[in-house]
Amino acid sequence: MEKQVILNSKHFELTINRLCYQLIEQHNDFSDTVLIGLQPRGVNVLERIKSRLETILGHEVICGKLDITFYRDDFRRRETPIIPSATNIDFVIENKRVVLMDDVLFTGRTIRSGLDALLAYGRPQKVELLSLIDRRFRRDLPIQADYVGKTVDTLVSERVSVEWKEIEGEDKVVLFTPETNG
Amino acid sequence: MDSLSVDHLTGIKNLTEHDIQLIFKTADSFKEVINRSIKKVPSLRDITIANLFFENSTRTRLSFELAEKRLSADVVNFSAASSSVKKGETLIDTVNNILSMKVDMVVMRHPNPGAAKFLSERVDARVINAGDGTHEHPTQALLDSYSIREKLGSVKGKKVVIVGDILHSRVALSNIYCLQKLGAEVMVCGPTTLIPKYIHELGVKVEHDLIKALEWCDVANMLRIQLERQDIKYFPSLREYSMQYGLTKKILDQLSKKIVVMHPGPINRGVEITSDVADSDQAIILDQVENGVAVRMAVIYLLASKIERQ
Fold first, then answer.
1. Which residue of B has its CA nearest to A68?
2. What residue spans in chain B does CATH classification 3.40.50.1370 cover?
3. Nearest to B305 among A81, A87, A116 (CB)
4. How far apart are CA A130 and CA B83, in angstroms?
């Protein structure tokens, strides 16, 4: 595997900052808005954005975590079942503006499941999508993000990994390319 | 990424500790699902499940049916009372007839011990044992341990006494296996005639004095006297049994610590426990029922993921 850093820690922070200001542009003081991170890795995006937003705004922003395991379209198509993570939405999403968050937008299937899972909690006024990385031209479904940290052009065989200071020790985004023969 | 080590749930005896923990972890997620305003997930949309009850049941059957429906599975119900079993059809023939109608999973309760294992070896479907005679009742034991874990934080190191008709109880045997696999200490308590002769070989303590047993334990699981399975008299009268082994509020209040009281249902109020115990804050009987749905959803979900797609 060939490894290439496509977002280093300095640009990572800048990107998170920019996404926060873009969100503020659209949602003002967040009184009608809730942020929901998709388990497992979207929660890292959520937590980083939440803490930055709260510093800028000076007040709390309502946040939740959503697990999509039971809504996936690949149940019984995998070797082993996926073990769910926790869902934690202790507020009403009815008539709220919801911003779904994930780390990498690829085929769009996770977001499709996320939309289904979200609707089990009520009928939001509007749903938007924030993705730290957008692997464009690789969608299986007609789904696009409203807020994008960085757009990358990739091959299906490549892998994009978002790493976090809290977990991997450093904020960065890495592109892994399989080595080709000749 | 994880899966069960078994293809059927015929008994707790065949499960590993890891299997049980996996079921509990999955059940945690389902417990959250069944407390939402929309209590249903689409996971098992393309799975059909037959509930075959060759013996009476209210709670278990309802619990399984709710679990199946909340996973979006299609459900067919069958009870022996209104079926061709009365006309002389064998178990295998009955089940194979149902399976020809494209059923993927069978939940079965049967009066004969070993019926679920027998079936699992002979038909092409996943089998879940919902009680086979006096042998095992695995989902009940799972939900009992799950409820202890929920109430006390963990099962490991806890002392659990099972009181009552151990001889005729499938709940007792499954509970002993399950609790021991999770690291709990188990004691059985009841009249000599209702304790199986070789039960100590399972590594459980035996006590005939209810008060001593209750002083020892953290959790007491009170079983019903299964009069329908008793072909001879095992004790002089229900009244005498109740005097010696019935749990009353007075006994409970005299104990040196607060214990947790469980009951797999159906309760015979005034026999094995009195009404004020059953309705007290130490009893987690209704939590057990709620957890039953979540635990059964987890078992069905994990086994269904092993069904090969055609």
1. B41
2. 12-136+290-304, 138-289
3. A81
4. 56
CB B81 within 8 A of CB B57: no
| Residue B29 contacts A where some CB pair is shorter than 8 Å | yes
The packing angle between helices B285-304 and B138-152, to 10°, is: 120
Q: How far is B75 from chain A (nearest CA, A)?
A: 19
CA distance A54 to chain B (A): 28
pTM equals 0.87
Which residue is it, tokens 């009403």?
Answer: A92
Domains of chain A: 10-154 (3.40.50.2020)
Give residue B58's Cα distance to chain centre: 13
- The ipTM assigned to this model is 0.75
User: For A42-94, how does the pLDDT look when each residue is reduced to its tens digit (9 = 90+)?
Assistant: 999 999 999 999 999 999 999 999 999 989 888 777 766 677 888 888 888 99
Superfamily of domain B12-136+290-304: Aspartate/ornithine carbamoyltransferase (3.40.50.1370)
